[in-house]
Every structure is written in C-alpha cells, then in structure tokens.
Amino acid sequence: MASNQSLRSNYTVAKPDVMGSLRDDDIELKSDDLSVLPVNPREQVRILRKMDWHLLPFVTVFFLLSFLDRANIGNATVAGMATDLKLTGFKYNIAAAVFFIPYSFAEVPSNIILKLLRPSRWIPSIMVTWGIVMTLMCLVNSYQSLVIARVFLGLTEAGLYPGINYYICLWYPRSERSKRIAIFFSAASVAVAFGGLLAYGIERMNGIGGLYGWQWMFCLEGIVTVLVAVFSFFYMQDYPETANFLTEPERSYIIDVLKHDSNSLSSLFDAQFVWQAMKDYKTYVQILIYLGLLVPGYAIALFSPTIINELGYSAANAQLLSVPPFVAGAIATIIVGIHSDKHNLRGPYIIGGALVSLVGYILLYCSVKPGPSYVGVCLAAAGNYPTVAVILAWAGSNAGGDLKRGVVLAMVIGISNLGGVCSSFIYIDPPRFHVGHGTNMGFLSLSIIMSIFAMWNYNRLNRKKEAQCLAENIGDDRIHEFKDMGDASPLFRYTI
Questions:
Q1: Is 0.90 surpassed by the pTM of this model?
Q2: d(Cα 260, Cα 37) in Å, to the nearest integer?
Q3: What confidence score (pLDDT) does residue 130 get?
Q4: What is the predicted pLDDT for the residue at 371?
Q5: CA–CA separation, 131 vs 477, rounded Å?
C-alpha cells in the first residue's frame, strides 16, 4: 500500500451536509495525474472485496424485499385472494398491471433526487414508504382497494431499482459492475422462490386476528421492509469519498480508479446531461433490449404459481414447485455476471440467456405433459434472469458521466417496466396459455435482434473514435477538453 500512501495528499474531500449529496464537484483533485494507482492485483481484489462486504448485503436485501413485495400478489392469488375478493375476468390482471404505470414514470425523477441527496437518506426513505403501503395492504377487502393499494405500491417502490443500479455505478468501475449487479439482482429470483416458501407457511395463519392467510403475507412482508429500512438509515454507506470503512489510501485508490474509468467526464448536476440521455438513440436501443427481457421475466414471476397449478398440481404444491426454477435463476445470474465481467462482454451473454429462455417457452407452448412443461418453466426462469443484470450493466457502462448514467438507467428501467403491464394481460387462456407463451417468445426474439444491432453499432462507434484519435492526435493529455461530452467523447470506448 506504499504506492497508495503517496497519493494521500492528492484529494481534498468536503463533508456532506445532513441531507445534501457529496458530488464530484465537492472533491478537489490537486493533481492532474489520472493514471491508475500501481496497486498489485491481489491488493486490488482485497479492496474490492472489502467494498463488497460493506455494500452488497444492503442492496441485495433491499432488492429482495422489493421484488418480494411486488410479486407476492401471484402467491396471494393462489392462496385464496382471487376467491375472497371475487377477482373474476381481468380483475387480477388489472390489479397486477396498475403497479407498473406509476412505477415507470417515477423512476427518472427519483434518480435525479438521488443525485441531489445522499443514498443513505433517499433509498431508506423509499423503503419506509413502500413498506408502510405493503403492511396496510393487509386491510384490503375488495377489488377496488387492491387496485388503489397496488398503484401506491408502484409509486413508492419506483426509485429503488434504478437507484441501486446508479449506486453501484458510483462505487465500481465499469469492468466490475456486472457481477455486482448480478449478485443483487439474483435476489429477484430468490425473492420469487422465497415467496413461494413463505406463502406455503403463512397460509397456515389463515383466520388468525380475523385475517386471511394472504392478508398476513402482505402484513408480515411489509413490516420486515420497514424494519430493514430503519436499520439502513444508520449503517448504509454513501460514497467512496465518505466511506468510513476504507482507509485514506484505499479511498484515494478507488477515487482515482473511478475518475480514470470515467475518462474524467463531468459529474456536475447540469440539465444538459439530462438532455444528452433523452436525445441519445442508443438509450432507446437499450430500452428495447430490456423490454424484450422484462415482459417474459415479469410474466414468469407473476404467473409461475398459476402456470404450475394449471399443470395439474394442487395450490400448495404449486407454491412449493415455484421455488426450484427461481433458485436456478439466482445461481445462473451470479455465474453469468462473473463471466460477463471476466470477459468484459455484455451482448453475447444477453443473447445466450435469451435463447435458453426461448427454448423454455417453446417447451411450454408445445408440451401437453406436466414434466416437460415444468422443465420449460425452469429454463424460462434460468435463462431470463441472468440477462437482466447484464443489460443493466451494459446500459450503465455505455452512458458517459454520472448524471447522464443515472438518467439513462432510470429511463431504461422505467420505460421498459411498462412491459409489466403487458405481462399482466397475456396469461388469459388456461390451461395451455398459448397467448402468454407465444408473446414471451416474440419479446425474447426482439431482445436478441436488438442486442445484435447494439453490438454491431458499439463496435462501429469504437472504430470511428479510434480513427478520430489517430487522425487528430487526441490522447489522455487532452482529456479535460471533452469532459462535458459524455460518451460522445472521442476517448470514451463502449463495452460490446
């Protein structure tokens, strides 16, 4: 760490106010040397692992609770909610769908607020509000009250997912993000699996306190969310610059790596970077890729208990049999995330996962026997879930500058999540569900096609920038000339 010690004097870090954000403009870089510190690989890994142990448990638990609370409506339906609330016709589909409308539109404003406030204040605040909504959903006693509750749940939960992705980008260089996003996103698979186990147990509380078993699901899961949020107010870290678990040389090293990784692009809060994100056609390519993955992803999360139930299994066994596909999804998510970072590739892993999921839906579409159909459910989940972590790492890595990255991630997640509305209405023809499976096959094909285009386009732009740097003699010595250009900077290179 001697090399780190020599750069202690290179940074002056301002202290954040109680609610304010410590942004990069609060950090005065006293040296123009942006070369990465000469830390040996073992020491590099040690620092990253130290960060992992202090950051990832928080964001993983946050996202697990988030996905558990949004997807438990599927378990509640099988547990008797559909009968008790008389959810006939499209009523369940509408109740599932309304969540995604406020959820989608609140994500960009939430990430902008996160840029202005400290993560340890904004993210736990989001959790407290949606935890209260979730807890109060135990009082739902009609279709109308269920719809209203789901609207408020979508509104209050909106900022967490894009916020966590943005938070990861504030701590890790681009080549290290996919595996970290994969680790916390694997919580989505665990949440669906765990939700099935919880539902199996909580159903036995039916009648206690005058509540149905499915009402106890909402109540207990909401209370846990609030308790975790209160704890995180005091223990969640904000930024590398203020991390009390890092030594001063370690902080200097991480700050230097992040600045080098971002090509010293501006991190100031300026409206021009919001417009850069909104006007960039590459943002909309990423939205289409993510949309093609989210529709089948939400469909399998919302309807897997119903699909398995329609294969001929009892409601209780359907809850339990919904666990293995998502355990497989969680394991595959982490494995794919690690290898995606190792090879610094995103597109091929998205295409590969989408193809596996496509095979699963083809099995579900064609098979009439429970055995092969259940294998199809497992393949659909195990192939789809790993791709989501990779696409978010891809979108974040290829957006230059902190604010643009935050807006791009919020746009990709927010607009694509409108696909959840579609997911809520496609499983309408039991027991074979041809409409649902066929729709998912189409969206996965869209994702594959757009991923191929994105890979070709990023490769084309990288070659163009290399030629420009060669022709105009552009090197790192001119890096500050392009700090406001975002990823349009000739020195910025896109991940394929």
A1: no
A2: 10
A3: 95
A4: 87
A5: 50
Q: What is the mean pLDDT of each run of 10 residues along the chain (496 residues)?
A: 38 40 41 50 90 93 88 83 90 90 91 89 96 96 95 94 91 90 82 75 86 92 95 93 92 88 64 86 97 92 79 75 85 93 94 97 91 91 93 90 85 91 88 92 98 98 94 83 81 90
Q: Which among 489, 461, 284 has a CA at the least distance from the CA of 401? A: 489
Give the CA distances from residue 230 to residues 101, 131, 185, 268, in Å, rounded to whole numbers and listed in that order. 27, 11, 22, 30
The residue whose two tokens read 């010690």 is 5
* Cβ-based neighbour number of residue 409 at 10 Å: 28
Please tell me the predicted confidence (pLDDT) of residue 35: 43
Buried b (16+ CB within 10 A) or exposed e, 84-104: bbebeeebbbbbbbbbbbbbb
Q: In the structure encoding, which two tokens stand for residue 304, read together?
A: 């897997």
Q: Are 160 and 62 in contact (CB under 8 A)?
A: yes
Which pLDDT score, from 0 to 100, does residue 346 have? 95
How big is the CA angle at 388 (ends 22 and 79), to the nearest 5 degrees?
105
Closest to 414 in 3D by CA, of 147, 160, 210, 92: 160
* Per-residue pLDDT at 296: 95
At residue 106, the pLDDT reads 92
Tokens of 34: 């942006």
27 - beta bridge partners? 13
C-alpha to C-alpha distance for 149 and 135, rounded to whole angstroms: 10
Q: How much is the pLDDT for 140?
A: 94
Overall size of the chain counted in residues: 496
